[in-house]
Amino acid sequence: MNKLFIKDIDVRKKRVMVRTDYNVPLDEDGNITDDTRIRATLPTINHLLDEDAKVIIASHMGRPEGKVNPKYSLKPVARRLQGFLKERAQVIMADDCIGPKVKKQIEEMRYGDVLVLENLRFYPGEEKNDPSFAKELASLCDVFIQDAFGNCHRKHASMIGIDGFVPSAAGFLLKKEIDYFEKAVNNPMRPVVALLGGAKVSDKIKIIENLTKKMDKILIGGAMAFTFLKAQGFGVGQSLVEDSMLDVVRNLMDISKRNGTKLYLPVDFVVAEKFDSRAETKVVPFQEIPEKWIALDIGPATTKLFTEALQDAKTILWNGPMGAFEFDAFSRGTYAMVDVVTGSHASTIVGGGDTDMAFHKSGKTHEVSFISTGGGAFLKLLEGGNLPGVASLLDKKT
User: Fold this and answer.
1) How close are the terminal C-alpha atoms of the chain, in Å?
2) Would you say 220 and 228 are in contact if contact means Cβ atoms under 8 Å apart?
3) Which residues in 355-394 are b (16+ Cβ under 10 Å) and which e?
4) Which position among 79, 88, 135, 200 bears the catalytic label?
5) Quick check: pTM over 0.85?
6) 281 φψ region: left (φ > 0), alpha (ψ -120 to 50), beta (else)
7) What would the pLDDT profile of 135-174 be if each residue is shown by its tens digit?
8) For residue 195, with 0-12 CB atoms within 10 Å meaning exposed, 13-18 middle and 19 or more buried, which class applies?
9) Is 221 a catalytic residue?
10) Out of 3, 14, 15, 37, which one is annotated catalytic?
């Protein structure tokens, strides 16, 4: 990443705005249920506190559609952040994210303290990348630090617009995300294996096409495996299939073969009479899915096949669950692969909200090399695309 890093720029005694992705899940009472994204930004915040900067946190939460909605306030985030920083810094919650009151709060705050701006998406100018809104944000700071990796695929005012008004650089989290991705995809230790799941081939088509040029093996699980099986002439019962993608999938299999990338598909499934956690289930080979049944998870033979395919891997990249793991009856395949990946000696990189959730539920998040904080941004990189929120940052001088 040939972009300015936070350590390349003078932040001492400066007003520094940090764009974070604090779009964290809340329960019905407004309590944060997973603070991973907040904890991930602490290295950047602590570095700025070490430099005695005024730290201004800018973030979004949810989709308030350009209107003020208390449901999407960042107040719970400010409280959790204060808990992390304890006595090290005072965390102040602003009532707004732009305007004279916010400017006054910044003027009056002490160096070495933190101000959390209110939800940027309370203003329509944020998602519209309105230059006037970006300019208003920029007027609050001397330096802008991009650390919202999970939002870097979006062309919003606080992601790309603000860079035109103040010096900008990448934070610790953003650099870590890009560095790990580079290690996994563009410069991996080999053999490198991708484990891909999820529901639709259409959601992952660009990813698979890109990875056939870079991976030694690709293991396909989840519901999208049925489109691959049907493309080869096999019956899949009532399982989810994208008929419009059959020719595309056949072409993908040809590309994979030409590139020497080995493609693995499930050999057995857990099937049910209907998509219901209480439905009758059984395990069948892939050729024997009953006509009126639905396959909802990979079976034990597939788990063994995938385990053996991953055995010699030096790098493992995983995106997407192996089945409908939100139901216990169809979660065994996904959690079995969690055990395989965490038990591997390979460098392991995990990305995507559902996959991330599986690791959190299993309690094994600390047993993988890296879990990405960005779903959409991570997928965009897997497709081989650029991230606007990274591209707009200042380049390093050569």
Assistant:
1) 13
2) yes
3) bbbbbeeeebbeebbbbbbbbebbbbbbbeeebbbbebbe
4) 200
5) yes
6) beta
7) 999 999 999 999 999 999 999 999 999 999 999 999 999 9
8) buried
9) no
10) 37
376 is catalytic: yes
Q: Please state whether beta strands 268-272 and 294-298 pair in parallel, antiparallel, or not at all (unpaired).
A: antiparallel
CATH 3.10.20.600, applies to 188-382 = no
Task: Judge whether residue 117 has pLDDT over 80.
Answer: yes
Contacts of 332 (CB under 8 A, 6+ apart): 270, 297, 303, 323
189 three-state secondary structure: coil
What is the tens place of the pLDDT at every residue in 349-358? 998 778 888 8
- Please say whether the structural domain 6-173 has been given the CATH code 3.40.50.1260: yes
Query: Position 58: which residue type?
Result: A
Catalytic residue status for 30: no
The answer to whether residues 217 and 393 touch, using CB atoms and an 8 Å cutoff, is: no
Give me the residue spans of the domains in the chain: 6-173, 188-382
Topology match between the domains 6-173 and 188-382: yes
Catalytic residue among 112, 376, 384, 385: 376
Structure tokens at 393: 């940052």
The model's pLDDT over 7-59, given as tens digits with 9 standing for 90+, comes to: 999 999 999 999 999 999 999 999 999 899 999 999 999 999 999 999 999 99
Is 352 noted as a catalytic residue in this protein?
A: no
Catalytic residue among 66, 353, 375, 385: 353
Cα separation values, 141 from 17, 37, 137, Å: 6, 23, 8
